[in-house]
Specification:
386 residues; alpha/beta; Arc Repressor Mutant, subunit A; Rossmann fold; 3 domains; 4-stranded parallel beta sheet; 15 helices; 14 strands
Length: 386
């Protein structure tokens, strides 16, 4: 047990800024969080099993750093007043295990697009693991629309007949009005796990590509091949786009190169389906670059087509690199250098982790995949040219 030095018990007239120092001035800030929790337990506002506010919410409520909030909850755990559950949150009571009593042997799976090149093999991986454990699967699609996601979540809550929920979030980079439904599902002790991306503000595990690392590796391939002016095209409304940009930025910055924000283009879901509509604009933005990191292979494929339409050669005039190793990567007029998405393996992992969370709420369901590049013909080696 740690011993805290609280200083002298009596006020001897210390002055702070010309004013007399009080006991409240010397009291560690985290103690007010502890007292607040104790008061709410004593009055019955907090009941055994209730989920506490997140660290971020507590930090905003008390105006304290998350480190200070973490210290306070740590003391509450030591005093057996609350219990931390990995991937779920902090609950009132000692050794509280939010296990759902009902067993329906059914899991809901919510994804964005069925037609995407990633989901069919991912679904296959999920199904193989669930069926092996005699779980049925309810599949729904949001079309990457939060309004459709809301309908699905309301239906899940109304039926209340699942043991777990697997979700690919809709527009994961944007504020989401549906977080209250996710919190209600979790309050019913139904474990939630995300795949491919996660929602900021919702403390739930996620199985996905390490998108920061993949963005870094994509840019590094161009840097290793002598490129010094590298553009980037990233998706603005999905979390993967923001993370892949972060990796791209790290690689270029760490190489001592400059990033001109004129050469970084952000697109949304409708635009990525038809980049040709803004093809001339894209080429104008990256006119002085020798290479471009694309958000995924769909964007990279279209960039190769746009370049050809405007009389540019890939990779001689412009090197293009993608991410995910979609089917279009190998059939592109210039086969794409890219990084394979784990797809089916990811599906197996997310399903396996959810089943572990159903059995043990303290199980950490997070996992990150990293893959090596598949080299094809879309990147020019400028070191040999020079």
């Amino acid at each position: 047990m740690q011993t805290m030095c609280m200083g002298p018990l009596f006020d001897h007239g210390n002055q702070i800024g010309g004013q007399k120092e009080t006991m409240a001035d010397r009291e560690p800030k985290y103690l007010k969080v502890i007292e607040w929790v104790k008061d709410n337990i004593a009055t019955g506002k907090f009941k055994y099993g209730d989920r506490m506010m997140s660290e971020k919410e507590l930090s905003e409520k008390f105006g304290l750093s998350r480190q200070t909030i973490r210290h306070a909850t740590g003391e509450l755990v030591n005093q057996h007043l609350v219990t931390r559950v990995q991937g779920s949150g902090t609950y009132i009571g000692s050794s509280y295990m939010p296990v759902r009593e009902e067993q329906y042997m059914s899991v809901a799976v919510v994804s964005t697009f069925y037609e995407s090149y990633i989901f069919p093999p991912t679904l296959k991986g999920i199904e193989s693991v669930l069926s092996a454990e005699n779980y049925s699967m309810q599949v729904s699609f949001t079309d990457n629309r939060v309004s459709r996601e809301e309908e699905i979540l309301k239906n899940i809550l109304a039926k209340d007949s699942i043991d777990g929920l697997i979700v690919e979030p809709a527009k994961s980079a944007l504020p989401n009005p549906n977080l209250r439904y996710y919190r209600e599902i979790r309050n019913r002790h139904i474990p939630i796990i995300f795949f491919n991306a996660e929602y900021p503000g919702l403390d739930a595990p996620c199985v996905r590509f390490d998108d920061v690392e993949m963005g870094r590796r994509a840019a590094s391939v161009l840097i290793q091949n002598g490129h010094r002016k590298i553009a980037g095209i990233f998706k603005a409304d999905d979390g993967q786009g923001r993370l892949r940009y972060e990796g791209y930025y790290r690689a270029v910055h760490d190489a001592g190169l400059e990033i001109d924000q004129e050469n970084v283009i952000w697109i949304d879901t409708p635009e990525i389906l038809n980049l040709d509509a803004i093809g001339a604009y894209l080429l104008q933005r990256i006119d002085d670059c020798t290479g471009v990191v694309c958000y995924n292979d769909e964007a990279a494929y279209q960039m190769v087509e746009i370049a050809a339409k405007h009389g540019m050669k890939v990779p001689e005039d412009l090197s293009v690199i993608g991410i995910d190793d979609a089917n279009v990567a190998s059939i592109c007029r210039v086969p794409l250098t890219t990084f394979p998405h784990p797809k089916e393996e990811l599906g197996r992992k997310v399903a396996s982790n959810l089943l572990n969370m159903i059995k043990n709420p303290e199980f950490d369901g997070n996992f990150r995949f990293v893959t090596d590049p598949v080299y094809r013909k879309s990147v020019c080696d400028l070191t040999k040219r020079s």
